[in-house]
Amino acid sequence: MKPLQVIDSHTEGEPTRIIIAGGPDLGDGDMATRRANFVRHHDAVRRCALLEPRGWDALVGALLCEPVDPACAAGVIFFNKAGMLSMCGHGLMGLAVTLAHLGRIGPGHHRIETPAGEVSFELLSRDTVKIENVAAFRHAANVSVDVPGHGMVHGDIAWGGNWFFLTKDSPCALEARHIPQLTAYAQAIQDALDARGLGGAGAPVDHIEIFGPPGGQGANARSFVMCPGGAYDRSPCGTGTSAKLACLAADGALAPGQTWVQESIIGSRFSAHYRRADAGHIIPTLTGRAWIMAEATLLRDDNDPFADGMAAG
Ligand code: PYC
Predict the structure, then answer these.
(1) Which of 5, 90, 169, 243 would give a disulfide with 11, using CB separation of 3.0 to 4.6 Å?
(2) Active-site residue flag, 237
């Protein structure tokens, strides 16, 4: 493995590490094909970049790729400590400020290829990004799941670029001091969903999103999002906010163009709205802020027993 050149950013508190050079050659297929190649042959790159001792629990990774369509600004494959992500809203905002930092784009509209499809964004300033996500939709409403230790939990299953189970049932207030309790609760829901094989369109639901009242003025709701592998999203989660918009749209609770402000568990926010698409789907638009934190080269020594990351990290 070559040294990995990375740029670290955070989006409303949630970190993204983008591999800008030294990553594997995945061929010239579309991003879904390259992701399959990445999983099959190069998972050590994901582990090396994200797991301890070089990374940490919350870190989301991204591999910058040449796009198939040269009119796109880039292609990208997102991943985290547990495996691959189809899309990542906060990561896309981090990618936008990273491309600007590298001088590859200026303010204005740009398109990015992802495994979930093409996403566009507008760089509004050096730290503010508005993204138009892939189509989102609600797959199932008011699903009841028996969660050991918690009883029946009710929620919706929706796609926002990843699969989410969204619930308003919570054992405690959505406050940062309750993060360990919320994580254990979300994991219990995830285990119950897995045990029942509940998912959407043949894929497992692997993100749990819990809702409660907002903590501050001007927001509509606060959310706690647990990502695959058990880390919680410090941002309001772009694909999770998209899934929420799809549920609100399906319930007739939010009109097209109407603003929805979603808070994260640490109080950071995305502002969002949607337009209608075909087949009852919606196209979500999300605005948030991201900042560059570091430029680094990750080195890997074959004699290092943790060269490819620690299994527990
Ligand atoms: O912002 O979509 C998102 C996301 C997914 C996982 C972590 N963040």
Answers:
(1) 90
(2) yes
Whole-number pLDDT of residue 186: 98
Expressed in angstroms and rounded, the spacing between residue 209 Cα and the centre of ligand 1 is 11
**What topology is assigned to 137-280 in CATH?**
Diaminopimelate Epimerase; Chain A, domain 1 (3.10.310)
Residue 172 known to be catalytic: no
Helices then strands, counting H and E runs in the chain, come out as: 5, 18
The stretches in the chain having pLDDT less than 70 are 312-313
pLDDT for res 1 = 83
Which two tokens mark 119? 């996403």
Q: Quick one: pLDDT at residue 36?
A: 97
- Judged by phi (left if over 0) then psi (alpha if -120 to 50, else beta), residue 34 lies in alpha
Q: CA distances (Å), 32 to each of 37, 78, 113, 236, 306, in order?
A: 9, 11, 10, 25, 29
pLDDT at 171: 97
- Spatial separation of the C-alpha atoms in residues 156 and 208, rounded to whole Å: 10
DSSP 162-231: SEEEEE---SS---GGGHHHHHHHHHHHHHHHHHHT-EETTEE--EEEEEE--SSTT-SEEEEEEPTTSP
- Closest atom of ligand 1 to 160 CA is 2
Of the candidate CATH numbers 3.40.50.10610, 3.40.50.300, 3.10.310.10, 3.40.1190.10, the domain formed by 4-134+292-298 belongs to 3.10.310.10
pLDDT at position 312 is 62
Q: For a pocket test of ligand 1, which of 92, 239, 242 has the largest count of ligand atoms closer than 8 A to its C-beta?
A: 239
CA of 228 to the centre of ligand 1 (A): 10
Query: Ligand 1 in contact with 244 (CB < 6 A)?
Result: no
